Amino acid sequence: MNKHISxxxxxxxxxxxSATLGAGLAIGLDIPFGGPAVVRAADGSPEINAWxxxxxxxxxxxxxxxxxxxxxxxxxxxxxxxxELECDWTKVTTEFPSPGQNVARKRVWGDFxxxxxxxxxxxxxxxxxxxxxxxxxxxxxxxNDWKVPAxxxxxxxxxxxxxxxxxxxxxxxxxxxxxKLTPPADVKLKDPKxxxxxxxxxxxxxxxxxxxxxxxxxxxxKLPGMLNAAxxxxxxxxGKLKSYDEAKIAGMKGVKKVVKxxxxxxxxxxxxxxxxxxxxxxxxxxxxxxENAKVSSASIAKWLAEGxxxxxxxxxxxxxxxxxxxTGAAKTxxxxxxxxxxxxxxxxxxxxxxxxTADKCEVWCGTQNGEAAFAAALEASELPADKCDVNKLLLGxxxxxxxxxxxxxxxxxxxxxxxGTPIKLLWTREEDMxxxxxxxxxxxxxTAGFDADNNLTAFHMRIxxxxxxxxxxxxxxxxxxxxxxxxxxxxxxxxxxxxSVPNLLIEHSMRNPHIxxxxxxxxxxxxxxxxxxxxxxxxxxxxxxxxxxxxxxxMKDHPKHLAVLEAVAEKVGWGTPPPxxxxxxxxxFASYGSYVAAAAExxxxxxxxxxxxxxxxxxxxxxxVNPAQIERQIAGSFVYGLSGLFYGGxxxxxxxxxxxxxxxxxxxxxxxxxxxxxxxxxxxxxxxGVGEPTIGVAGPAVLNAYFAATGKRIRxxxxxxxxxxxx
Length: 727
Fold this sequence. Notes:
The protein has 727 residues and is an alpha+beta fold.
């Protein structure tokens, strides 16, 4: 990629600085946009600044620091840069800088972490400034050549025009000179009303290569002399590798080496993956599974249930005195819900290729956090930062799983035992699903109180269950509390509670089983939306009120929540009777800085077969960079959310996850996909996410419609456990 001088960096200092391994680095961010010395891309083309490389033929290369895993951030981020750059969109291409380059250049590209629907919303400002800075430098270069004031020049579609004389030149012709200029100190961004590319549903830049099969994912990497590795880790988290009998597979075809990986895993290296896997399957292994082998789904459920009534709890949101108000209420309603472990089950299993020598460690992989993968490579290789790097590739699915770096660490540890030989580590599907980082398991008790006029006066919500941050980012806990648990339940911020209740108490009894939790797409929004929106539906019916009208009364102080809810209600025709045999359900929520709502239309056969005919979904992300892509994300969200609702759910037996392949962990099929009608309604003034928010409203909208159809409340996920499936 870029030619640059790599400063020495102490490995331990970097690893400590990036210890969160899933959330970017907690060090300063300095973003220079250019300078007198020309930095060149691999093909020799000048870099105008870190974000923009321009070739002589006017091709514009936009650097993308975030990861692309199908969500479209690559195209959206390019749109942001190009909007300010004013270049020819048809000549735009992209590339990923490496995290090693980022660290060597004082993090010029900023945060590499891609999760929490924040790829665009937390980088829009500085990437747009990158485009604007490059445009100003290109104009200045042309003006200098013409010996005219830059203020007399304009740029559009990669062409610079001197307005008084009509002279023109192209970006490619002045790029070399522009790259040598000192960047301007004062960079002004466009007013949103003047945007021409942002807000347009342009075609994705990564689609053609995917269609033609030229896209290289981590699983596709091929290097000269490369060998393949298969691995088995102790199936019980916290267990150890006790012993293995290498002699039993010594003569098997293609086997090169058997290696211990850390304290809990063993890998076989062979000429092909199949030979490595076959030998590993034949290898006698003895595990020390430890005390965690005594844990089951039943024991976890019992422990969590105890937390609904007893023990300390962290308060995430409160006002008034909910407990006193409940005691004096004219009527109280109570319900208990639960939400299970869920597996990411990415189509591409975890994999990484590593090449280690005493002087260099290089990794090729798909990752949601290039800098975290880089930190893992540093730690495992024990080499300094200037001797390591990670080559980022497109991901065959991430959903939060590839924010973790266990597979990168394993690949490097294996490669260290065979210096000079590239090693591709590929997890089997069984390994991938046994060693996931699972959606946290929780239970929730909700209690509400009404006065004599059926006004909601008290709302108490107590969640008992797992904290993601306690496991993956303990430094992010706030006085022991996990703020992530309260997604969509906060008093303010980018995931606020959408109702005003005189007496409110929302709390979390933290109980962490040994199964490692992870950031599963949508994360805590998924269960919190079900808990709140299904219970609100229960309260509406208990009060004898229409579910929409009941919510409206509580949402007067929450106009953005109310706007998306009313948008879906109007489009679905909530105020008119549905067709014969069709039943409707509503839900809304706020998360990741966006406001979303859904209205589902379903039919039910025999009480157990649900046909989801139609879902209307509204999203207010503040600004909509690519509305067409947002619509696709909304539709994809319902695939993910409905799959989790109907089929998701991992159970624990003898300390290990039981669902190890798609025969026991299913996904919805195309035939079950409803018609999705998206309403993208950006209100401006803020930047919200789009990849995750609508997942949360899929479940409650369908569950509320199911109650309308059958009169039965479902408070436990997945529906397969209730013998309910897609029709």
